[in-house]
Write the structure tokens for this entry.
Amino acid sequence: MKILITGSNGLLAQKIIFLALKESVNILATSKGVDRSSNFHQINYEYLSLDITNKDQVSSVINKFKPDVVFNTAAMTNVDLCEEMRHECDEINITAVGFLADACLQVNAHLIHFSTDFIFDGENGPYSEDDLPNPLSYYGLAKLKSEELLDYHEVKSSVLRTIILFGVGNNLSKNNIVLWAKEALESGKELNIIDDHYRAPTLAEDLAAASLFAAKEKVYGVFNVSGKDIMSIFELVVSVAEYFNLNSTLIARIHSSKLKQLAKRPIKTGFILDKAEKELNYHPHSFIESLEIIKNQLKNN
Ligand SMILES: NC(=O)c1ccc[n+]([C@@H]2O[C@H](COP(=O)([O-])OP(=O)(O)OC[C@H]3O[C@@H](n4cnc5c(N)ncnc54)[C@H](OP(=O)(O)O)[C@@H]3O)[C@@H](O)[C@H]2O)c1
């Protein structure tokens, strides 16, 4: 199998590549700028700089490599920035998905794309694939439009929606909540954490495994793929403190209205995982098991 992955400097991409390299696959990793992941030295791994908003570049790279599967993990993921920079958000999160879909159609490749719980309004979480989206933020709207674009496109595609990804990566351009909370508490910082928003945080390895399964077994369609434990953000951070024996008295509860964030966020998401369990053989770790995996990875780093 030949795999092309976009956004390879990001967390999810690094996990997909790590898993895929254990199989007999050829990987073309692509991201904006240089290869920062610097983890992979296998003969079947190659890196190329690719900005997915450049239509000609996308078409030429995909037509030359002729992948069987394209994983599109590249995205503008900062929700408040998307609210502010709507044009850039559209270009990366919607228009570029169209470029990838067109190129995949030309070489008959399977496009695996990633979306978010923020397509829902949070009034009735946890959500199944059949629930009606109603995004509150521009990021959520853009991701929903990218899903709809693939829905009407003739390309073979899978969309995996996920929630708060976390894990250990190499030279990531952004932190994730578990590592951020751990590092902040270790340095004795006092944290104000919202206790009125609920999520199902997702170990990046679990989502990577489901994505690879979709690629190998050619499973198409939309899937909700998150962790199995739904918790408030406050509970999440307290669990991190307790698991790593850090001082949880540094964590204060606040209401989300105190944060004055630009983008509106859903109150309670979480996913019903039945479809992913059945069709993607998805069996995620519990949140505590995931923390154990992270602890071991940090020990070996
Ligand atoms: N993270 C979450 O909590 C979360 C939740 C729900 C859904 N998702 C979705 O899951 C997917 C993967 O998320 P992630 O957390 O792994 O993302 P990430 O760590 O932010 O990785 C995205 C990567 O894409 C790269 N990129 C940005 N613009 C690009 C462009 N124009 N061309 C090529 N590469 C570009 C970024 O490069 P730089 O590193 O140089 O910036 C980054 O390395 C995304 O589709 C995201 O929307 C994520």
Notes: The longest strand covers residues 110-116. The longest helix spans residues 86-107. Residues 6-7, 9-12, 31-33, 51-53, 73-75, 77, 92, 114, 116, 162-165, 172-174 surround NAP (CB under 6 Å).
